[in-house]
Specification:
mainly beta, single chain, globular, Beta-galactosidase, Chain A, domain 5, 3 helices, four-stranded antiparallel sheet
Length: about 350
């Protein structure tokens, strides 16, 4: 009889645990709505996930390219540098042109789209990416996307490239995922992306996600970032190396954060080289071979007149945990299968 009571109690506890676990699992897998709020006057579209601002797609006139800015974790911590649009105390004030998340390049038919605005104004040989319109927009439970149309302009205002970009946003628990699929079409002349390290898909991160300086000073306070590549390299060693993904992880006020960029196997130059710097610039560059190999290799990429080329990138932002290699590989593999 005693054994029967113990068995009954054990069964009861197991069933209770199972029900509670299922309930928690369902809560953890709650689907979050992705919503878009258009602010035409402010030249931006807010992207809300679960009713909270995740990021904004915006095109400020003094930035000379569309950007995602600012960008937040699921808990509301900003992972992008505020300077120069909204400076925060303790930030570095270098490289005015590195704002939010963007895609451009430093030598396109001799024009600098990457560094335009680095002195706070439009450069004589600087290219501008002008936002034209939102072609379509779809927000629904669990995911949302829109298509944006841009024009890559020469200083005289003539179009060099037309751009059509699909932005897709999704949430999985404390993860936020952005997929950017950009198709560039050359206008009436062949367009050359001449080999340079200044490119291509980048993000400028918050001060806390920079790598600590070798110089021990007060500016290192709270700075905790570190890189790890899909090939196992870490820290400064990742710069100028090839990898299918790169993880920048660190802590902001005790919150563990991972920011991952994934390359796609159909991108030109795959696996990409990484222009990933300790001071907070985190970029994938498929065309900077000469700089990255110290002149041993080079890659000058052309898009013939009227032809197109597509570039696919994924950003994963994790809050509360640093992602493992296995987890990142799974999201990277998913990305490669989803967009072909």
């Amino acid at each position: 009889m005693k054994s029967l009571r113990i068995l009954s109690l054990s069964v009861f506890l197991f069933i209770t645990f199972f029900i509670v676990s299922c309930g928690n699992s369902k809560r953890n897998q709650t689907v979050l709505n992705v919503e878009f709020v258009n602010h035409d006057a402010g030249k931006k579209i807010d992207i809300l996930i679960g009713g909270k601002l995740f990021t904004s797609f915006c095109w400020p006139e003094n930035v000379y390219k569309p950007i995602l800015y600012p960008v937040y974790t699921s808990s509301g911590t900003e992972i992008t540098r505020g300077f120069p649009l909204n400076p925060r105390e303790g930030e570095q004030t270098d490289h005015l042109h590195q704002v939010g998340i963007w895609l451009n390049y430093g030598n396109v038919n001799g024009l600098d789209f990457w560094g335009n605005g680095y002195r706070g104004f439009k450069e004589p040989k600087g290219g501008e990416i002008k936002h034209l319109r939102i072609e379509s927009l779809s927000d629904k439970s669990g995911t949302g996307s829109f298509v944006s149309v841009e024009s890559w302009l020469k200083p005289d205002g003539k179009e060099l490239l037309s751009e059509r970009t699909i932005y897709s946003f999704s949430a999985k628990g404390n993860l936020r995922i952005v997929d950017r699929i950009t198709t560039l079409t050359a206008s009436d002349t062949t367009v050359m992306f001449k080999d340079t390290k200044e490119g291509m898909f980048g993000i400028r991160v918050a001060r806390q996600l920079e790598m600590p300086s070798a110089e021990k000073d007060t500016l290192n306070s709270g700075v905790s970032g570190n890189y790890v590549s899909s090939e196992g390299l870490k820290g400064d060693a990742v710069w100028g190396t090839r990898a299918k993904w790169m993880d920048l992880y660190g802590n902001i006020k005790g919150e563990k954060i991972s920011v991952v960029i994934c390359d796609h196997h159909e991108n030109p130059g795959y696996p990409t080289y990484w222009h990933a710097r300790g001071y907070g610039l985190f970029a994938a560059n498929p065309f900077g071979w000469k700089d990255f190999t110290k002149g041993k290799e080079s890659f000058n990429f052309n898009i013939p007149a009227g032809k197109s080329s597509t570039f696919r990138y994924r950003i994963i932002i994790s809050s509360g945990v640093h992602l493992t290699d296995n987890e990142i590989n799974a999201y990277s593999d998913e990305f490669n299968k989803e967009y072909k």
